[in-house]
Amino acid sequence: MIVWLASFPRSGNTFLRSMLRQALGLYSYSIYNDVDDIGGNDDVRQAVGHLFINGPIEEFCKESTLGPEIVPVKTHEPPIDQAPAIYVVRDGRAALVSYWNYLRKFRQRQDLTLQDVIRGRGTRFGSWSLHLQQWAPLTRPRTLLLRYEDLVDDPDAAVAKIASFLGRQPVARWQDNFQEMQAAFPAFFNTASNAKNIGQMTAEDRRIFWHLHGDGMRAMGYEAAEAIRPE
Protein backbone atom coordinates (compact mmCIF):
# COMPACT_ATOMS: atom_id res chain seq x y z
CA MET A 1 0.00 0.00 0.00
CA ILE A 2 1.46 3.31 -1.05
CA VAL A 3 1.37 6.14 1.48
CA TRP A 4 2.25 9.40 -0.21
CA LEU A 5 4.62 11.70 1.66
CA ALA A 6 3.40 14.90 0.05
CA SER A 7 4.55 18.47 0.47
CA PHE A 8 5.47 21.64 -1.32
CA PRO A 9 9.28 21.62 -1.78
CA ARG A 10 11.36 22.55 1.28
CA SER A 11 8.51 22.01 3.70
CA GLY A 12 9.86 19.14 5.78
CA ASN A 13 9.53 16.06 3.57
CA THR A 14 13.09 14.95 4.29
CA PHE A 15 12.52 15.58 7.99
CA LEU A 16 9.43 13.34 7.85
CA ARG A 17 11.30 10.59 6.00
CA SER A 18 14.10 10.65 8.56
CA MET A 19 11.51 10.45 11.33
CA LEU A 20 9.84 7.45 9.67
CA ARG A 21 13.20 5.69 9.38
CA GLN A 22 14.41 6.36 12.88
CA ALA A 23 11.25 6.21 14.98
CA LEU A 24 9.13 3.73 13.00
CA GLY A 25 11.72 1.67 11.14
CA LEU A 26 10.20 2.53 7.75
CA TYR A 27 12.33 3.11 4.68
CA SER A 28 10.86 5.29 1.94
CA TYR A 29 11.10 6.00 -1.76
CA SER A 30 10.83 9.10 -3.93
CA ILE A 31 9.10 9.33 -7.30
CA TYR A 32 12.13 11.38 -8.37
CA ASN A 33 14.56 8.69 -7.12
CA ASP A 34 16.65 11.60 -5.75
CA VAL A 35 19.76 10.28 -7.49
CA ASP A 36 21.53 13.64 -7.63
CA ASP A 37 20.69 14.85 -4.13
CA ILE A 38 19.70 12.69 -1.13
CA GLY A 39 20.34 9.45 -2.98
CA GLY A 40 23.78 10.61 -4.06
CA ASN A 41 25.09 11.07 -0.53
CA ASP A 42 25.51 7.80 1.37
CA ASP A 43 25.40 9.33 4.86
CA VAL A 44 22.21 11.28 4.17
CA ARG A 45 20.61 8.44 2.23
CA GLN A 46 21.03 6.13 5.21
CA ALA A 47 19.84 8.74 7.70
CA VAL A 48 16.73 9.43 5.64
CA GLY A 49 16.10 5.77 4.86
CA HIS A 50 15.99 6.44 1.13
CA LEU A 51 15.57 3.48 -1.22
CA PHE A 52 15.95 3.61 -4.99
CA ILE A 53 13.17 2.59 -7.36
CA ASN A 54 14.36 0.07 -9.91
CA GLY A 55 12.48 0.10 -13.17
CA PRO A 56 9.67 2.34 -14.44
CA ILE A 57 8.04 4.55 -11.79
CA GLU A 58 4.55 3.70 -13.08
CA GLU A 59 5.06 -0.04 -12.59
CA PHE A 60 6.54 0.49 -9.13
CA CYS A 61 3.56 2.61 -8.06
CA LYS A 62 1.05 0.11 -9.43
CA GLU A 63 2.68 -2.84 -7.67
CA SER A 64 3.11 -0.92 -4.42
CA THR A 65 -0.51 0.22 -4.42
CA LEU A 66 -1.73 -3.36 -4.66
CA GLY A 67 0.69 -4.83 -2.11
CA PRO A 68 -0.10 -5.32 1.60
CA GLU A 69 3.02 -3.62 2.98
CA ILE A 70 3.24 0.10 3.73
CA VAL A 71 5.34 1.80 1.04
CA PRO A 72 6.01 5.48 1.83
CA VAL A 73 6.74 7.51 -1.30
CA LYS A 74 7.82 11.15 -1.42
CA THR A 75 6.14 13.44 -3.92
CA HIS A 76 5.75 17.14 -4.63
CA GLU A 77 3.30 16.49 -7.47
CA PRO A 78 -0.48 16.95 -7.35
CA PRO A 79 -2.38 13.85 -6.15
CA ILE A 80 -2.87 11.14 -8.77
CA ASP A 81 -5.09 8.78 -6.79
CA GLN A 82 -6.89 8.37 -3.46
CA ALA A 83 -4.12 6.45 -1.70
CA PRO A 84 -3.39 7.43 1.92
CA ALA A 85 -1.13 10.44 2.32
CA ILE A 86 0.81 12.34 4.95
CA TYR A 87 0.85 15.99 3.91
CA VAL A 88 3.48 18.24 5.51
CA VAL A 89 2.84 21.96 5.40
CA ARG A 90 5.27 24.69 6.47
CA ASP A 91 4.80 28.41 6.98
CA GLY A 92 4.68 29.48 3.34
CA ARG A 93 7.10 32.33 3.85
CA ALA A 94 9.82 30.02 5.18
CA ALA A 95 9.12 27.31 2.61
CA LEU A 96 9.28 29.70 -0.35
CA VAL A 97 12.49 31.40 0.76
CA SER A 98 14.07 27.99 1.38
CA TYR A 99 12.92 26.81 -2.06
CA TRP A 100 14.35 29.95 -3.67
CA ASN A 101 17.70 29.40 -1.96
CA TYR A 102 17.69 25.75 -3.01
CA LEU A 103 16.92 26.61 -6.64
CA ARG A 104 19.65 29.24 -6.78
CA LYS A 105 22.38 27.41 -4.89
CA PHE A 106 21.73 23.76 -5.71
CA ARG A 107 19.99 23.97 -9.10
CA GLN A 108 21.90 27.04 -10.31
CA ARG A 109 18.70 28.95 -11.16
CA GLN A 110 20.20 32.42 -10.92
CA ASP A 111 17.46 33.74 -13.19
CA LEU A 112 14.80 33.47 -10.48
CA THR A 113 13.94 36.18 -7.99
CA LEU A 114 12.25 35.51 -4.69
CA GLN A 115 9.14 37.25 -5.98
CA ASP A 116 9.09 34.85 -8.95
CA VAL A 117 9.02 31.93 -6.53
CA ILE A 118 6.39 33.60 -4.33
CA ARG A 119 4.20 34.00 -7.42
CA GLY A 120 4.93 30.44 -8.61
CA ARG A 121 6.55 31.65 -11.81
CA GLY A 122 9.30 29.71 -13.53
CA THR A 123 9.25 26.83 -11.08
CA ARG A 124 8.20 23.25 -11.61
CA PHE A 125 5.60 23.01 -8.87
CA GLY A 126 3.75 26.30 -9.21
CA SER A 127 2.63 28.33 -6.25
CA TRP A 128 2.45 27.40 -2.58
CA SER A 129 -1.31 28.04 -2.46
CA LEU A 130 -2.00 26.03 -5.61
CA HIS A 131 -0.19 23.02 -4.15
CA LEU A 132 -2.24 23.34 -0.99
CA GLN A 133 -5.46 23.55 -2.98
CA GLN A 134 -4.53 20.51 -5.07
CA TRP A 135 -3.93 18.30 -2.05
CA ALA A 136 -6.67 19.86 0.14
CA PRO A 137 -5.29 18.09 3.25
CA LEU A 138 -8.11 19.30 5.49
CA THR A 139 -10.76 17.48 3.46
CA ARG A 140 -8.95 14.78 1.45
CA PRO A 141 -9.88 11.29 2.72
CA ARG A 142 -7.20 9.19 4.45
CA THR A 143 -4.85 12.15 4.78
CA LEU A 144 -2.82 13.09 7.85
CA LEU A 145 -1.95 16.79 7.94
CA LEU A 146 1.23 17.68 9.82
CA ARG A 147 2.80 21.09 10.28
CA TYR A 148 6.56 21.31 9.94
CA GLU A 149 6.67 23.51 13.00
CA ASP A 150 4.94 20.82 15.08
CA LEU A 151 7.41 18.19 13.85
CA VAL A 152 10.22 20.39 15.12
CA ASP A 153 8.60 21.62 18.34
CA ASP A 154 6.96 18.38 19.52
CA PRO A 155 8.43 15.41 17.64
CA ASP A 156 7.14 12.83 20.13
CA ALA A 157 3.56 13.92 19.53
CA ALA A 158 4.17 13.92 15.77
CA VAL A 159 5.57 10.37 15.90
CA ALA A 160 2.49 9.26 17.87
CA LYS A 161 0.17 10.76 15.24
CA ILE A 162 2.09 9.14 12.39
CA ALA A 163 2.20 5.78 14.14
CA SER A 164 -1.54 5.87 14.78
CA PHE A 165 -2.24 6.85 11.16
CA LEU A 166 -0.09 4.03 9.81
CA GLY A 167 -1.16 1.47 12.39
CA ARG A 168 2.39 0.84 13.57
CA GLN A 169 4.20 1.00 16.88
CA PRO A 170 7.29 3.21 17.26
CA VAL A 171 10.55 1.28 17.47
CA ALA A 172 12.71 4.09 18.87
CA ARG A 173 12.48 7.61 20.17
CA TRP A 174 13.16 10.33 17.62
CA GLN A 175 16.53 12.07 17.91
CA ASP A 176 16.97 15.16 15.73
CA ASN A 177 19.76 14.49 13.22
CA PHE A 178 19.45 17.65 11.10
CA GLN A 179 22.86 19.00 12.10
CA GLU A 180 24.55 15.76 11.07
CA MET A 181 22.76 15.69 7.73
CA GLN A 182 23.54 19.35 7.12
CA ALA A 183 27.23 18.75 7.86
CA ALA A 184 27.22 15.76 5.49
CA PHE A 185 25.47 17.66 2.68
CA PRO A 186 25.57 21.45 3.24
CA ALA A 187 24.74 22.21 -0.40
CA PHE A 188 21.34 20.57 0.00
CA PHE A 189 20.40 21.50 3.58
CA ASN A 190 20.13 25.25 4.07
CA THR A 191 18.56 26.10 7.44
CA ALA A 192 15.81 24.54 9.50
CA SER A 193 14.97 27.95 10.95
CA ASN A 194 11.77 29.67 9.85
CA ALA A 195 13.03 32.92 11.33
CA LYS A 196 16.21 32.96 9.27
CA ASN A 197 14.31 32.22 6.09
CA ILE A 198 11.57 34.77 6.70
CA GLY A 199 14.23 37.32 7.61
CA GLN A 200 15.38 37.31 3.97
CA MET A 201 12.06 38.74 2.76
CA THR A 202 11.68 42.43 2.01
CA ALA A 203 8.56 44.40 2.88
CA GLU A 204 7.45 44.09 -0.75
CA ASP A 205 8.07 40.32 -0.72
CA ARG A 206 5.85 40.03 2.36
CA ARG A 207 3.14 42.22 0.84
CA ILE A 208 2.96 40.06 -2.29
CA PHE A 209 3.08 36.88 -0.24
CA TRP A 210 0.15 37.79 2.01
CA HIS A 211 -1.88 39.03 -0.96
CA LEU A 212 -1.45 35.71 -2.77
CA HIS A 213 -1.25 33.22 0.08
CA GLY A 214 -3.01 34.76 3.05
CA ASP A 215 -6.08 32.52 2.76
CA GLY A 216 -3.98 29.38 2.68
CA MET A 217 -1.88 30.52 5.62
CA ARG A 218 -4.95 31.19 7.74
CA ALA A 219 -6.52 27.87 6.73
CA MET A 220 -3.38 26.09 7.94
CA GLY A 221 -3.44 27.90 11.26
CA TYR A 222 -0.65 30.39 10.64
CA GLU A 223 -1.13 33.87 11.98
CA ALA A 224 -1.51 36.66 9.44
CA ALA A 225 0.64 38.94 11.58
CA GLU A 226 4.24 39.53 10.55
CA ALA A 227 5.61 38.09 13.77
CA ILE A 228 8.56 35.79 13.11
CA ARG A 229 8.93 32.58 15.10
CA PRO A 230 11.78 32.71 17.63
CA GLU A 231 14.96 30.75 16.96
What is shown here, in short?
The protein has helices at 13-24, 42-48, 57-66, 92-105, 114-119, 128-135, 148-153, 155-166, 178-184, 194-198, 203-219, and strands spanning 2-7, 29-30, 71-75, 85-89, 143-147. With 231 residues, the chain is α/β, with parallel strands linked by helices.
Helix content: 40-55%
* Distance between the first and last residues' Cα: 38 Å
Strand content: 5-15%
**Unreliable stretches covering 5 or more consecutive residues:** 227-231
Mean pLDDT: 91
Q: Which structural category do the helix and sheet elements fall into?
A: alpha/beta
- The tally of structural domains comes to 1
How can the largest sheet be summarized?
5 strands, parallel
CATH level 4 superfamily: P-loop containing nucleotide triphosphate hydrolases
Q: The CATH topology is what?
A: Rossmann fold
Shape: globular
Order of helices and strands: EHEHHEEHHHEHHHHH
CATH class: Alpha Beta
How many strands in all? 5
Spatial strand order of the main sheet: 2-3-1-4-5
The whole-angstrom Rg is: 17 Å
User: Number of helix segments?
Assistant: 11
User: Would you identify the CATH architecture?
Assistant: 3-Layer(aba) Sandwich
